[in-house]
Design brief:
The protein has 341 residues and is an alpha/beta fold. It folds into 2 domains: 3-186 and 300-335, Rossmann fold, CATH 3.40.50; 193-296. The chain has helices at residues 3-8, 25-36, 77-81, 121-133, 171-185, 193-204, 229-235, 251-260, 281-289, 319-329; strands at 13-18, 42-46, 65-67, 72-76, 87-97, 100-107, 111-113, 138-142, 158-164, 208-212, 217-219, 240-245, 249-250, 268-271, 277-278, 293-296, 302-308, 334-335. The strands form 4 sheets. Strands 5-6-4-2-8-1-9-17-18 form a 9-stranded mixed beta sheet, sandwiched between helices. The longest helix has 15 residues, at 171-185.
């Protein structure tokens, strides 16, 4: 059994997310589908829809997704018309997308499929449960383009990150950015369940809030975390142990807080998950070095990275150097699914 399949087969769900377009995310998905063939029943959906059949920028044809008979999939009606499998419709979900309602069906033949699923986390979790209840041992969610827009990989038990030369002509830059992304996605989970519950409550209200030593809390009168630094700083005192942030943590937010007070050094900043942290490696390093702590409510379990040394923009990296560079600085296994290593 293939190494990637070995890593993920003990989980009931996995998402595949890409650092950029054309880094080999679909190749990774097809690789897993091929290796799982005849070994385990799969469920398949995606977050939104990942673009055109031909890449507009490079005019290269994008790889199609090939599934085997028996696979259960959730995809938008229009995408189903673009697929060439014989299928049995199981149900309409009532979830609507720009490509039509999401339909759940079972493939009655092998063939190519076009995936387009919901883009909301709540719908995605619902579909994951549906696919599992229909006998899928592993549900695979094809992530959307950029880390900035995909629904949370915290929806699945495991995540695979695809990276590659298409990200930049500089190999060093691709390696550094991949390392930083893994750091953000793997931010530590808050262990105290009572704090997690309060954090979920504040986030559920769509707010920013503070939690005190005695576990009481209050929400702040701000609309978004992006502009909340002044209110957060004003709310801090010796009794605050956590700042809970719904939405994105940006460089500006953290820099403004660091400039305005030293109280942040005793406090844990709690966010939904690592995809909400948009900090450069410099800002993250400075914040942590000064004693700042960031933890997440929903941990993301990155099990491996897949690397594509080729770019459709007409250049490629030395694949051995690229793999070696990534393997040296990442604590997770790295695979070249294009070259099969």
């Amino acid at each position: 059994m293939n190494e990637i399949l070995k890593l993920i087969k003990s989980y009931d769900s996995v998402s595949i997310i890409g650092m950029n377009k054309n880094v080999g995310k679909t190749t990774t998905l097809n690789h897993i589908l091929k290796e799982a063939r005849g070994k385990m029943p799969l469920g398949l959906t995606s977050i939104g829809r990942d673009g055109e059949e031909v890449d507009r920028v490079t005019a290269t044809e994008k790889p199609k997704i090939y599934i085997e008979e028996g696979t259960v999939l959730a995809t938008a009606k229009q995408c189903l018309f673009n697929s060439d499998i014989t299928r049995e419709i199981i149900k309409s979900t009532g979830i609507h997308t720009p490509m039509g309602e999401v339909i759940i069906c079972r493939a009655l033949s092998d063939g190519y499929v076009d995936l387009g699923g919901p883009s909301l986390n709540s719908y995605l979790a619902q579909i994951r449960e549906e696919l599992l209840s229909l006998g899928s041992e592993l549900v695979i969610i094809d992530g959307a383009l950029s880390r900035k827009t995909f629904a949370s990989p915290a929806i699945t038990k495991a995540t695979i990150l695809s990276t590659g030369a298409a990200l930049s002509r500089s190999m060093r830059k691709v390696i550094d950015e991949t390392k930083h992304t893994i750091e953000l996605l793997s931010l530590p989970h808050e262990d105290d369940s009572s704090i997690v519950n309060v954090g979920r409550h504040i986030i559920g209200q769509g707010r920013v809030g503070v939690i005190y030593k005695d576990c009481t809390h209050r929400t702040l009168e701000v609309l978004t975390a992006l502009e909340a630094s002044k209110e957060i700083v004003e709310a801090l005192d010796e009794t605050v142990t956590y700042v809970v942030i719904k939405g994105v943590i940006s460089d500006k937010l953290i820099e403004d807080i660091m400039k305005s007070t030293n109280l942040y050094k005793q406090i844990t900043f709690l966010v939904e998950d690592g995809t909400k942290v948009f900090l450069t490696s410099d800002t993250l390093y400075k914040f942590q070095k000064q004693g700042g702590i960031i933890k997440v409510v929903n941990p993301i379990n990155v099990v491996c990275v897949t690397a594509n040394p080729k770019s459709p923009y007409g250049y490629e990296f030395d694949k051995d150097k690229f793999l070696e560079g990534l393997r040296q600085c990442l604590a997770v296994p790295v695979f070249d699914v294009v070259g099969g290593r």
